[in-house]
Each structure stands twice: as C-alpha cells, then as structure tokens.
Write a structure and sequence with these properties.
The protein is of the alpha+beta class. It has two domains: 340 residues, Beta-lactamase, CATH 3.40.710.10; 82 residues, Beta Barrel (Lipocalin), CATH 2.40.128. Helices cover 23% and strands 24% of the residues. The chain contains eleven helices and 21 strands. The strands form four sheets. It has a nine-stranded antiparallel sheet with strand order 1-3-2-13-12-11-10-9-8, sandwiched between helices. The chain has an eight-stranded antiparallel beta barrel with strand order 14-15-16-17-18-19-20-21. The radius of gyration is 26 Å and the shape is globular. The termini are far apart.
C-alpha cells in the first residue's frame, strides 16, 4: 500500500522520492514507513509504504520517535538558561542535591560529555516499565561515572533522565507537561504525545531469517521517559524540522538555537574517521562538507530520524515501526533527490544601504604580508576573508559603540576596532591585538613590534 500525502513538488521529483521510499520498505522489510520533506518551513512532500492496522499510514500516523525526544528536553533546559534560572556551567548536583555524578555540568549532560553510564543498572529500560526518580537516583553514585566529565563523547540515555528531573524540579511539573506547555502547544504539534493515540503504528521486530513479525512491548518509561518516550507524526515533526531550520517562533531565540547546533563533542569511532558530533541536545553530522542538525531515534519496534541541512534549511523525517534494519542512507538520499531535482534558488541580489563608516573599511587589508579582504554584507555585518588564499575567515556584527564582534571561527567573540588618526582618518584595524594595515606592514600604522626602518628590500 502507498499514499502520497502532498504534491508540492514536481511529478518527476515525487516519483523518484516514492521509488526510493518503496525500495527501502521492500529491501529492509519494514512493516510500514512514512517520510516527509520540509522546505521553507512547509511539508512539501510526504509518502508512506506498508500497512498500519490494515490501512496505509499517512503523515498523521503516530510512530514512536525515540531519542528525538531528547531535542525537546534540551530546548526546555535552554529556555531555563535563557530565563536565568540556571547556567550551563552549573554542576547538576547543585540543582539535584544528593546526585554526585562526578561534578558533571548541565552542558556536559546535554552534549553527552558527562561520562555518565549509557544505560540503567536494571533490566533493559526500553522494554520494561520504568520506575520513579528515586529508583533511578539510587543508581547515580560515584560508579555511574564511566569517564572523566568533559574528556570524551559517551552517549548516555541516563543523562537525559537526569535532565528530565531537572526540568520537573525547576518547573514544578512533569517534564512532559513542560514540553507540551512550552513547545508543543505553541508550535501546534497536537499529535505529539507521551503515549500512542490512534492512528498509531504497533511496534514490531522482524525475524532476521523469515518474513514474520514479533510485537514489541510498549510502556511508560517512568524516570527514563525523557530519553525516548514521545510519539509523533511526519506532519508534526515537519514543524520541528522547520524549528531546527530556524523558525523558532517565540519558543526560543535564534541565537540560542545557533548555540545548540555548535559542536560540543565529536563522536570519534576508532574504526573510521569521525563524521558526527553533538551540540547541546542536538545531533550533528558533517558529510562531505555539508552540515546537518537533528537526531536519530530508536526504541524496540521503532526507528526514526529528523535531519536538517543547515545550508539550505531543507529537512527530512523518516519513521518506521521496525526494531532494526532501516537503512542509514534513506534520509540523506531523500534530501539529495529533492536538492538535485529542485535546487534552492539563490536570493535575488538587490542593492542595500551601507553606512559611510563601513564603506571606509571595506576592500583589501594586510595582516603583515598576508592579503585580506573586508566585505560589507547585506545584513549590515562585515566579512573578513583571504584575498589570495585561505585564512582565518569570519563574519562580524556591528555594535553601537562602533566596534564589531566576531561571530565565527577563530575570531568568534573577539572585538574588531577601527583605529583612527587625530583627524578621523582610518589608520588601521585592530582585531584581537592583530594589526591590519592598508599596505603590508605599513610603517605609519601602530604595528606591534614596529617596522624595520630600512623597509622592504631585495
């Protein structure tokens, strides 16, 4: 069975996308699979294969999203930070007394850098009913820390159980009520719930050597629920993809979202070069130079992924009711088909006003003998890059006092100052103590260490 729910893409694009989805369902033996693509904040294509309760699934069919839940928990934590209720550098034990965790900070828990154990000490929590916070807290003694906090990436489901309790304590409500009130309701995500609400797919394991199914258990995970409890739909997660692409509405500031998508730790497997990392509650990928943000999810009977191309802002959602076997290439393949068939057009160029004080400093400069180029950007910012080769490139945001603040790379957070002579003429630029001059090592500028009086010679 199949159903194409939207047709905002061209027929050839839709055909290629459906063929790729159909091949995945057949080759990976998925009881059902639903997928969608998001562009400019809109679900432009969705389709499904297989059967849920004898009918074709749709973009409104619920699947368990697994660890995609963690992105919602992380946003709630960042909202608390933005309100001044906590700092990312706070030790979690400062807010949850009696929970040592080796001095791990909130930021380390969000980025899986706390060194905390991956799973609970008891039975496999994903297949057994969960207990309350007290039953989880007793496991969080000194032995719960497997690695020195901050030393390496070590994925921890337990860590997000801890963050869920942090939200509950600070909001005086359950973590899921906080998620609903602060995120789901404002974004209109009505079909995202903590337990399945029909129509919803049943979770299955597929026998590895025969085409038969085994139902997987479903339950409330209790204190571990923040690690993977939520259920959702392709339609609802399309709104979350738009959120991750920058349309945060009033839920979160753009600057905070950008902070969450900055790599905090690299997932460095010994068998291959690293291609993935983790921000603050958000999974990151760097594939062939293209950066993606989102998260994968797995629970017994379900697999899911949401991924956004940070350059084009296109997003993809895939959800299936199978414990294993969903190919890793499906989500990137769907994005690649959309990009190939319907590439994003560049914005039209239009002239934009540039202040005279900015025009004064655009053009070639020199860091010692190295040529640089300062360009004015349409948003009122500056960009510094190499004129003849690679260098420490960065964008800069203007400040009210006439200085500029670096936003990326080596110069992130550093201050760019325009140094003038007594008559107001620009003498040189000062960036983090580096002197940029209009000619190589201009002797008229205040070059640190001075310029040899003999000047340039053969």
């Amino acid at each position: 069975m199949e159903i194409a729910v939207t047709d905002a893409v061209r027929p050839r694009t839709a055909e290629r996308l459906l063929n790729r989805l159909a091949a995945e369902q057949a080759d990976s033996r998925l009881p059902s699979v639903a997928a969608g693509l998001v562009r400019d904040g809109t679900l432009v294509w969705s389709a499904a294969r297989g059967s849920v309760d004898g009918s074709a699934p749709t973009a409104d069919t619920q699947y368990r999203m697994g660890s995609i839940t963690k992105t919602f928990v992380a946003v709630c934590v960042m909202r608390l930070r933005d309100e001044g209720r906590l700092a990312l550098t706070d030790r979690i034990a400062d807010h949850l007394p009696g929970t040592p965790l080796g001095g791990a900070t909130i930021a380390q828990l969000l980025s899986h850098a706390a060194g905390l154990q991956a799973e609970t000490d008891g039975p496999w929590w994903e297949r057994t009913a969960g207990g309350d916070w007290d039953s989880l807290a007793v496991q969080l003694g000194d032995g719960a820390t497997r690695h020195r906090p901050g030393s390496r990436f070590h994925y921890s489901n337990v860590g997000f159980g801890v963050l869920g309790e942090l939200i509950a304590r600070m909001r005086r409500t359950s973590w899921d009520d906080a998620v609903r009130t602060e995120i789901l309701d404002p974004l209109g995500m009505r079909r995202t719930t903590t337990r399945p609400v029909a129509p919803a797919a049943r979770g299955y394991a597929v026998h590895p050597w025969a085409d038969v199914l085994l139902p997987e258990p479903e339950h409330d995970a209790g204190a571990m629920a923040p690690a993977g409890q939520l259920w959702s739909t392709v339609a609802d997660l399309s709104r979350w993809a738009a959120f991750l692409a920058g349309d945060t509405a009033d839920v979160l500031s753009a600057d905070t979202l950008a902070e969450m998508t900055q790599p905090q730790m690299v997932d460095d497997p010994p068998e291959a070069a690293w291609q993935a990392g983790y921000g603050l509650g958000i999974q990151l990928w760097n594939l062939d130079g293209t950066r993606y943000a989102g998260h994968g999810g797995s629970m017994p009977g379900f697999l899911a992924v949401i991924r956004v191309d940070l350059s084009t802002r296109d997003g993809v959602i895939v959800m299936t009711n199978n414990t294993s076997s969903l190919g890793r290439d499906l989500a990137p393949d769907l994005l690649a088909i959309l990009a190939a068939e319907e590439p994003v057009l560049p914005d039209e160029w239009r002239p934009s006003p540039v202040p005279g004080t900015t025009l004064e400093i655009v053009g070639p400069w020199y860091w010692g003998p190295a040529p640089l180029l300062v360009k004015a950007l349409p948003d009122g910012w500056l960009e510094i890059g190499g004129l003849t080769g690679p260098t420490r490139s960065a964008k800069f945001r203007p400040n009210a006092d006439g200085t500029w603040t670096g936003l990326s790379g080596y110069y992130a957070g550093e201050t760019l100052r325009v140094v003038r002579t007594d008559d107001g003429t620009v003498r040189h630029l000062d960036l983090a103590s580096f002197c940029f001059t209009r000619t190589p090592y201009d002797p008229a500028a205040d070059v640190p260490g001075g310029v040899d009086a003999a000047g340039w010679s053969a």
